[in-house]
Amino acid sequence: MIVEIADAMSGARPGARRESVEGYVKRLQKLEEVAKSFEGVGRTYAIQAGREVRVIVEHDKVSDALADQLSVDIAKRMKENFKDEIKIDMDFLIAGAILIDIGKLIEYDKVDGKLVTSKAGHLLRHPFSGVSIADRFGLPYEVQHIIAYHAKEGDLAKRNVEAIIVHHADFVSFDPFKA
Ligand SMILES: [Fe+2]
To answer: Percentages helix, strand, coil for the chain, rounded to the nearest 5?
Structure first.
């Protein structure tokens, strides 16, 4: 935090960090290229002089960014409306929403430039492989719960509040594209 503030103050000085337009554009392009090199990343935009890179993921390949945002928006609105009636842990909710599709890294392989279901993917869909990845990194069971039950496999389970919100946000940003 202190470093961030110092950095912002230093950068705000008149004349500080002035660079040629060409160098500036090149730097932004480089940032976007690096971000784009990741599997499943569609478009990238470097903004705020390269301090932030917005990444648009390909909806059918990796976790849907829209679902993440929807989860947060729904949770916030519910908190406003229901106050203490419903407890929502935003940390678990956001971590879970971001990671629900992490198992797709195992579920799919790239063959001749195309994504195909991997051998592991035929045996374990991404909610299962996602939990195994999350557990490997020691993530809390609350986050693993959201990953495990976010998709149809979770329909028979008893989802907690965070998992219910993420599940619906995920499907409302997915099902309409199939309608
Ligand atoms: Fe999923």
So the answer is: 60, 10, 25
